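Human: I wish I could look at a protein chain and see how it folds. This is the protein in question:
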Amino acid sequence: MPLLDFVMYTFLVVVGIQVIFYVLFYSRFAFSKQQRTTQNVVPVSVIICAKNEAENLKTFLPSVCAQNHPNFEIVLINDSSTDDTLDIMEEFKATYPNIKLVNVKSIEAFWGNKKYALTLGIKAATHEYLLFTDADCKPLSENWVSEMTAHFSQSKSVILGYGAYAKIKNSFLDKLIRFETLVTATNYFSFALAGMPYMGVGRNLAYTRKEFFDANGFINHIKVRSGDDDLFVNQVATKSNTVCQYSAASFTESVPEQTFHDWYRQKRRHVSTAKLYKTPHKVLLAALYISNFMFWLLAILLLATQYQWKIVLGAFLLRIIMQYIILGVSAKKLKETDLIFFFPFIECFLILMQLFIFINNIISKPKHWN
């Protein structure tokens, strides 16, 4: 078989794999309808762990304090900050009686480990239902607490939410960050709706104290400094206990990294935890990335040589059109429609960056919460 024949057939197989992912997984989220809430108003502990986040707390904590929910407390965890974080927390506590402070001092065994600080905060929480966000996040609705916790029930103990990033005009980095966030959210919502929840994001995530303590907290990955959100969800989330919450009123929004270097370092931390996912999740995610990479590599090669260009172009357009339709509908659900035009261009760049991150993480370990 001539080499280009082999390349073309490989390309067609890759396109087939991509179509399967879009039809069997991505379409589940794109064409799903948000489950109706149970209208279950439960007492909630909102948990925010902060390390040197004084300015962010001043900016974003008021929107958490102003939530329209009849019974919630805010557990603020100062994780050994060296700035004015603790002072700012105490100022807020003096104004809002539903704030509880947990001041964590580093100990040698858990130095710089966010999971240790979070564990102390969860133990200090009053309520069974826990809602997590970050110090640099703001809820996009005064009903965020109610929306994120309304699905809790005897059988539903893990709620996956969406943590968006703020839009910055004329910024390619912002579009890259938001596209990567959109794709990640589409992945974890789609897999969860397919009965295979594999991760969530700590910017907007809820679960019960019982779920936490039944799993012995973060003990299975306590030595891995990242993964307090995705690794824990990967461990405890199941088809029967997990709900996806993606109503607009349930979103949070964070400030994106301001430099490419900071974003790259952040993604190195995030990617480093994927190797600890359950085997079926690792296999599917690896197949997804490899097929994405091979799709663009082989398409460019075949179109450049014009080999069987009508067949190649037809397969290429099939996949691109499916992406625009299915990921476009997902972008509309998540209020990211301004990214739709840029899909193919940003995707190519992101695939290359993910390859560099993977190689870089093999060469040297990424830095974590510090």
The chain has a mean pLDDT of 92. The two ends are 55 Å apart (CA to CA). The first helix runs from residue 3 to 30. The longest strand covers residues 72-79.
